[in-house]
Write a structure and sequence with these properties.
- The chain is α+β, with helices and mostly antiparallel strands.
- Helices cover 35% and strands 26% of the residues.
- The chain is built from 14 helices and 17 strands.
- The strands form 3 sheets. Strands 14-13-12-15-16-17 form a 6-stranded antiparallel beta sheet, with helices on one face. A 5-stranded mixed beta sheet has the order 4-3-2-1-5, covered by helices on one side. Strands 6-7-8-10-9 form a 5-stranded mixed barrel.
- A hairpin with a 2-residue loop joins strand 12 and strand 13.
- Helix 11 crosses helix 12.
- The radius of gyration is 25 Å and the shape is globular.
């Protein structure tokens, strides 16, 4: 069956979905458009998230799948891909389906069904017309809106500062009560204070505090008191930096504001001429998905840029999806590579980024990139430099060659043979899966270090390749 406009109208959930799809009928916004001889069509669409949405359709039965979090089925991306295919105005490269398309094929339940007969009538002709012209702007209304935005900003600043004052008292109370007591009661204590920070409009700081107990209890019992002291000290440092933000370097000031809860919109970052931009070939070295206490699923994609040149070597693409929309996964898989220009959020250690322009389709190559000719000690030095510039750094990628995995009791450690004092604990949940690496000899690999333990994401030895499940 060949896709037709009539079939797309029958599948569309409503007129709004078709109207939204019309705005996506620009091949320039699709870094990948491809098909094969069996009728599979797929593409990558740059949406509002940090990573492109992956869309696949089957011309044989109008099946579809998109990685966006929309609750409409099919979503605007699926409809747009069908529309471009039906009209024949876009060029679809003939290619072999990538792994993510094959994964969809193996999981799909069967042909998609058209919208029920009772659904509102939708029309591609109406969508293609573009609708009515927007109403002319009202200068007085815009001025009033600007005044209101400034008033809201000042009110939020005052609310955050008041919340930070209460937070300082809370931190002092925890120290006076004793670290052992704080660790034992961390879940309840952090949850109550986090809620007050939410009320004070310091949402990002609240999320970090609310997740602190989980971070502490993922460590060994002996490490928890020291970790608690460090974490509480970092919270105090963030609060003090926010109060003195006007005296900070601009990049550090923006970073602190993000840590507390201010958000720079995607469109604003992409349009910012002062934002740092770095182009190159990027390798996906790690992915991770976690549910936050605020009921958002955080989806992370960690990238490493090959070659030399100016600009950051690492990048973190981060998306947030409500848990109510179901499961979500990273837009890329470990081992994929693509060429793109990334734009980075302001920070003394630029890391979090968005894809500004993807200039090549993503391709699945070797699971291990061509790592720098450096050992674990050199990667560790890079972490310490980044931590010195950004004390609330969080996770940091370590790329290493020639390391050894050693076992001590039930624990595994990543060591550098050239640095006898360097032994990084491997995450306890990897104690079984990573155990074969202890007998594998020299290991090249990648891991995420959180200040207390390293979670290996991939490794390679003479005996073969290992990828975190």
């Amino acid at each position: 069956m060949v896709l037709s406009l009539a079939k797309i109208e029958a599948l569309a959930p409503d007129q709004a979905a078709l109207d939204a799809a019309r705005k996506l009928l620009k091949p320039a916004t699709w870094p990948t458009l491809a098909c094969d001889e069996t009728g599979l069509v797929w593409g990558e669409a740059q949406g509002s998230g940090a990573t492109p949405y992956r869309v696949v359709i089957s011309e044989a039965d109008a099946g579809y799948k998109c990685t966006c979090p929309s609750r409409k089925f099919p979503c605007k991306h699926s409809l747009a891909l069908m529309w471009m295919r039906a009209e024949g105005k876009a060029v679809f490269a003939s290619a072999t389906p990538p792994q993510w398309v094959n994964d969809w094929l193996s999981r799909r339940r069967g042909p998609s069904q058209a919208a029920p007969a009772t659904a509102p009538k939708v029309s591609i002709a109406i969508a293609a017309s573009g609708g009515e012209e927007p109403a002319a702007s009202d200068p007085k209304a815009e001025a009033r809106a600007a005044v209101q935005r400034e008033r809201n900003r000042r009110d939020r600043e005052a609310s955050i500062l008041a919340g930070l004052d209460e937070f300082d008292l809370w931190l002092s109370d925890q120290l006076e009560t004793g670290i052992a007591a704080f660790v034992a009661n961390a879940a309840g204590a952090c949850r109550r204070m986090a809620q007050r920070l939410v009320d004070a409009k310091a949402s990002a700081l609240a999320t970090r505090l609310d997740s602190l107990p989980a971070r502490l209890f993922s460590l060994t019992e002996a490490a928890r008191p020291t970790a608690a002291v460090v974490e509480l000290a970092v919270f105090h440092l963030i609060a003090e930096a926010y109060r003195r933000q006007d005296a900070l370097d601009p990049a550090l000031r923006e970073d602190v504001r993000q840590m507390v809860g201010w958000v720079q919109a995607r469109d604003a970052l992409l349009a910012d001429p002062a934002a740092m931009r770095t182009a190159g070939r990027w390798h996906v070295i790690a992915t991770r998905t976690e549910v936050q206490p605020d009921r958002l699923r955080r989806v992370e994609t960690w990238l490493w840029r090959e070659g030399e040149g100016d600009g950051p070597r690492f990048a973190l693409l981060m998306d947030f999806v409500p848990v109510t929309v179901g499961g979500a996964s990273a837009g890329f898989m470990i081992g994929e590579t693509f060429k793109a220009e990334l734009v980075f959020y302001a920070s003394p250690v630029p890391l979090r980024a968005l894809i500004a322009t993807q200039t090549s389709p993503s391709s699945t190559g070797q699971a291990m990139p061509m790592l720098p000719e450096a050992g674990l000690a050199v990667a560790w030095q890079g972490y310490e430099q980044a931590l010195g510039a950004r004390p609330w750094l969080g996770d940091w990628p370590l790329l290493f060659r020639g390391a050894r995995v050693r076992r001590s009791g039930e624990e595994l450690f990543l060591t550098d043979p050239a640095e006898a004092g360097l032994a990084l604990p491997i995450a306890p949940e990897q104690a079984v899966s990573a155990l074969p690496l202890a007998d594998a000899g020299p290991v090249n690999g990648v891991g995420l270090w959180d200040g207390w333990r390293i979670r290996l994401t991939q490794a390679e030895a003479e005996s073969g390749r290992w990828v975190d499940a």
